[in-house]
Amino acid sequence: MRKFTLQITRILTVTSLIVVSSCKQKTTQIEEVAKQPNIIIYLTDDLGYGDLGCFGSPIIKTPSIDKFASEGVLLTDCHSAGTVCSPSRAGLLTGRNPYRSGFYYIQGAYGAYLQEKEQTIAELLKSGGYETAFMGKWHLSRLEQTKKHKEPTPGDQGFDYWFASTHNAFGGPKNFGKFIRNGEPAGEANGWYCDVLTEEATNWLTNIRDKSKPFLLIVSTHEPHTPVAPPEKYSQMYDNAEVDSLEKTISYGGVDRPEYDITQNKKDYYGTVTQLDNAFGNLMKTLDDEKLRDNTMVVFTSDNGPEHPVNLEESQGNWEDPIRDMCFGSPGIYKGMKRYPYEGGHRVPGIVRYPGKIPAGTTSNELVVGTDFITTSVKLANIKLTEEVSPDAIDAFPAFLGKKIKRNKPYLWIFPTHEDTFFRMPHMAMRYNNYTLLGKFPEKTEDQTIIEWMKSSVPTTFALYNLDTDPEQKINLAETKPEMVNELKGLMTKEWIEIRDEGPNWQTLNQASKK
Fold first, then answer.
1. How many independent structural domains does the chain possess?
2. Dihedral of alpha carbons 445, 449, 452, 457, sign
């Protein structure tokens, strides 16, 4: 009997240990899920590096963003994934250089769209239990579907809820009528684009999402992209002699502007940025009201450098766009603007807040690229990510803490123009420590299409700049540092050929889809 009792005791003890172990395991799993942060990426459109108070603007008032910056880390060396809209957005969502996905220019050009096979940040986070939402400008496929023409929507790319427009708010940002909500036309919006997005995002955060899950929310504004038309109360803030005087001190990246006077438009651009600041501040207030601040990492950035008015002589007389006379965005001290591979085309404002994890009021000078947000977010969410999924991304979270980070490979910013039809500029840039190498393709022949020229070319002429000592990129070091140029041009060419050859040929793909 005693032997039997001992056996029962041993069985009960082992069972208890198993139960305790199981409970501990379940508790650990619950704690791990609880540690998953909510993630918000707030992506502005054509906002320049020098357009915010916290980044040194002497004119534009951005109290909400400045306060947000004081609560997190200011990234002084933050870069978009491309130098123009759609490529940057593709890179941010996939962690891949946008040329790998075929975004050689904007969505629709050459037939480009984000193919369903591309794995996005939304799909990856969703696999780890996240609920996902996208609000605003999509510009990665045509959302207006027809029986003959269907392209992947945000819903096909991992977003549970979406309220989006295919392009910008052409016709004006007020009462925009082309939003689509989860595949259905939403009708005319009541208010300005950025304010409507805040209202939609607030409604999703408070009333729609499953509050038992962590979430990813991407808010993609139209502002301050043209057309520019803020409420009068914002533009009036900048209609005075002090602004007229300060405007003369603003740098526009060394890019020529029209000879005719457009200064009467500046109040509307500056007012639009302040309106955007207010919309962002209202969204952050929603986080506070919903008690989401402490477990939410919020990223604020821009899709590329600032737009600029067209100088017809510079564009060889081939392009005129009067609404861009409203553009007064500044790249700060940097050279170039939107589209340019120079720093001003892709160095953008970057601010990240994650209370308790990222020290408040700090600054990081480490290089961070828009592609990095996918790897950073997925790692924070404890989801495995292989390098093959996001080959041009790294975990940038140490940079948010002011620590040094190392990239596995150099990053290329590319714009496939050629000098006979557009701006005269290099075709790509590559960062290497504090240096940047600019590369230019040989001239396109008359019998080549732009795609044929791009996909058969490698850079043949180069310029080298030291960004530490020459942030304005005025002193070309190619002749004084030929050994460095020879070393770096080999890296650039190798990386370019890999990216170039991976990118799809849309002409072939579109022909195959019609068969």
1. 2
2. positive
Strand partners, 165: 137
Q: Is the pTM of this model over 0.85?
A: yes
CA distance 258 to 485: 35
pLDDT tens-digit profile of 261-312? 999 999 999 999 999 999 999 999 999 999 999 999 999 999 999 999 976 5
Contact 205, 150 (CB under 8 A): no
Q: Are 250 and 273 in contact (CB under 8 A)?
A: no
Select from 374, 400, 426 the last residue of a domain: 400
| DSSP class of 343 | H
The long-range contacts involving 8-16, CB below 8 angstroms and separated by at least 24 positions, are: none
Calculate the CA 349 to chain-centre distance.
10
**Furthest C-alpha separation in the chain:** 106
- Grade residue 259 by pLDDT with cuts at 50, 70 and 90: confident
Whole-angstrom distance, CA of residue 267 vs CA of residue 100: 39
Verify that 458 and 356 share a domain, yes or no. no
Q: Are 384 and 417 part of one and the same domain?
A: no
Does 21 fall in a domain?
no
**Strand 368-369 and strand 184-185: pairing?**
unpaired
* Structural domain boundaries, residue 428: 412-513
Give residue 103's Cα distance to chain centre: 14
In angstroms, the CA 85 to CA 326 distance is: 18
Contact 177, 185 (CB under 8 A): no
The 10s digit of each residue's pLDDT in 45-74 is 999 999 999 999 999 999 999 999 999 999
Prior bond to 224 cis, omega within 30?
A: yes
Helix (H, G, I), strand (E, B) or coil at 308: coil
**Does one domain contain both 111 and 217?**
yes
Beta strands, E only, 441-480: 461-466
**Which secondary structure element, helix H or strand E, spans residue 193, and what is its range?**
helix 193-203
In a domain, residue 22? The reply is: no
